[in-house]
Amino acid sequence: MNKISEVVKEARAAFQSGRTRPLQFRIEQLxxxxxxxxxxxxxxxxxxxxxxxxxxxxxxxxxxxxxxEEIEHVIKKLPEWAADEPVEKTPQxxxxxxxxxxxxxxxxxxxxxxxxxxxxxxxxxxxAIAAGNAVVxxxxxxxxxxxxxxxxxxxxxxxxxxxxxxxxxxxxTTELLKERFxxxxxxxSAAVGKIVMTAAAKHLTPVTLELGGKSPCYVDKDCDLDVxxxxxxxxxxxxxxQTCVAPDYILCDPSIQSQIVEKLKKSLKEFYGEDAKKxxxxxxxxxxxxxxxxxxxxxxxKVAHGGTGEETSRYIAPTILVDVxxxxxVMREEIFGPVLPIVCVxxxxxxxxxxxxxxxPLALYVFSSNDKVIKKMIAETSSGGVTxxxxxxxxxxxxxxxxxxxxxxxxxxxxxxSFETFSHCRSCLVRSxxxxxxxxxxxxxxxxxxxxx
Amino acid sequence: xxxxxxxxxQAFRSGRSRPLQFRLRQLxxLRRMVEEHEKDLLxxxxxxxxxxxxxxxxxxxxxxxxxxxxxxANLPEWITPKPAxxxxxxxxxxxxxxxxxxxxxxxxxxxxxxxxxxxxxxxxAIAAGNAAVxxxxxxxxxxxxxxxKLxxxxxxxxxxxxxxxxxxxTTELLKHRFxxxxxxxNAAVGKIVMAAAAKHLTPVTLELGGKSPCYVDKDCDLDVxxxxxxxxxxxxxxQTCIAPDYILCEASLQNQIMQKIKETVKEFYGENIKExxDYERIIxxxxxxxxxxxxEGQKIAFGGETDEATRYIAPTILTDVxxxxxVMQEEIFGPILPIVPVKNADEAIxxxxxxxxPLALYIFSHNNKLIKRMIDETSSGGVTxxxxxxxxxxxxxxxxxxxxxxxxxxxxxxSFDTFxxxxxxxxxxxxxxxANKLRYPxxxxxxxxxxxxxxxKQFNKGKLGLLLLTFLCAVAAVFFxxxxx
Lengths: 453, 485
What we know:
The complex is a heterodimer. Chain A is α/β, with parallel strands linked by helices. In chain A, 41% of the residues lie in helices and 16% in strands.
């Protein structure tokens, strides 16, 4: 346990040495990170395959490419972002210089998640490095292979003191959270999010919490169901449903329920063949506990497709449930598995009401050819983010901050937002010592009668 | 209390705080309240801190009027969705960030500027379309009472509630769920607020404090320097979160600085400071005694008189202060100005960096290089160079701390942003499904190669490259469409 304190202390000393300040240093570290990803691609893919049954394509397309794009984007933009930003002055400060100066916070802690164990720890790291911080990484212990790999390769490419990797389970994470950091970014569940924030409060450490929730997917009668269902199936069953922004459940009119089921089934066959277990592209559940949990959610439900699983390989078939009762267990927790419930609603208003009764989700999806429907759905609900007529993809656009609201999280990152999250925006006003006459009015003694400005 | 908080939440759920017109009307009503009851406000706030009406007006009321006007002018623009830069794959889609209200904001005010520190956040909360519960500080009793009386007369009574009370009531209040909490006060209570917020995953803005250092370089016009420092230090009898807490300077300057401050004090408050209507008093006995104890054992160059009956503490300068002494261990929040001699700017920088990041940093110097270096090599919530306090007055500058001096910021647009959720929106069409073909399983080695080629924009050479790339994507789409059938 003492070792954790030592490592954090060294990271802080390394930060205080000042070497992360020059932009050149930060860019070099990011380039080293990029080299690491390119040179160790096969190792990264291997770890993802072992942890989650991902293959080269899914590793690349779902995890690595986003980090590589982020690095490129950040390297290009860093000089602009790091520059002082002049701001508008008041009449009294016309002669002065006023600007916002971005500076590093210090030592940032990033706690990764197991579902995208590479992306969810490295993409935030890119932003933290760019902003000039030291970064302590704590990969999720559930994705063991990735945790071990990161502990090996990161010190081989990057500054060893500034960017340490600390592995371990709950006891180690608890110890780590006793240390003082200048920002903590945590990706995971709301329950642990509360624990992280409580620990952070002891040191007045600001936090970014990327949590989850049940991301609703409303399918309007007026839309191209072929396309809608293909897109939904893609986003839902990617990584076997273990995606924080996966469409969790569908809301639709009962009259289109069976069509939706048919078209989802068709897409599933196109994607994974007759038996998804044999597909190279279909993932597995991370561990036995989650396997049991997800299988438990299917119990007692009306299964329109799938519903089976194999414990030894932690395979759960793509499953569609129909006529789901909003009170049932599958509708009371984030599913995080390949089970897609369809809940029937009779109107857009009912769908909106349904969504608003539950906690604010991380993502909201609405499928409709009718712009008015989309605009109304967005205007009358809240969620971290929205994609209309597709799923997932809003999180791939650099210029769109990625984060939750309410129980789905606080703060955001990606692109410039990462840089801002991991920086302190320091307000600066530079005046001159001349012309004190102009300030006479502010000095006591005050006039006998009050003057109106 | 439960019922009140529920009432506020229900009122928010009704949706009436959302339309722009409603928010503008409420802000205009708030402005009217300040104008129509100016006298009452000046008297109440003045009573809490023994402050002259002029000072209340110029330090508190004017700021609120300015903030309301700024919101009224800019809000129509701020609430519109902001388009964001599109990526290659979203070139034909609508990409924007939409600000929306969070819900119910809890604002916990402070006693030192009891009006502005409760109202300025409220202005931001209203502008962002939220409901709000305001908990004024119980130490500034008169202001707390008048806010409870006036706000319901002008603002929507269900959306904006004032809840008064002490530590017990505040603890109760903090058990409820809010959508954002803005707290102004000290670090110890800041931790309590954040821990309470954590139970509900409520984001917080904490405006705390610290010891704001004031470095005075050689070769400065000490007349002007000392006048400015004295103004900022003694305003509100030192009870200002961004007051210059202590001075750092070369030992040889101490005497001059002390002399000039002494002269300035006389200019400002006359021979008999106690009689000046412009010199305030300490808020209560507890703080009076606390500040008194900080002077004990110190080398008093000037001042040091106190009068418990009126909670008067004279402007006091301490020289050759030992960094380990009590007065250098806590935020003074009183009219005591310690001078700590340092050898040079380097030592000043080390001194500052050994301590917690302050809410403000002040540097007095002609040397631009030194100024820049000092800013670069330290950290603080904000900075004013060659003056004090003033960075607070620009609503284009976010006002907030860092480290122990706080988290988050507000004022002007930053208030609007703090009390909004910025919702990322990507609006696609159900057409052009061809462009998505690449992403669907089944996947293959050749697909990986193609993706690496396209997605990393190897033809990243301007518009021609973009056209070529789009052409290639279309080709790929056709390729896969053909491949499918």
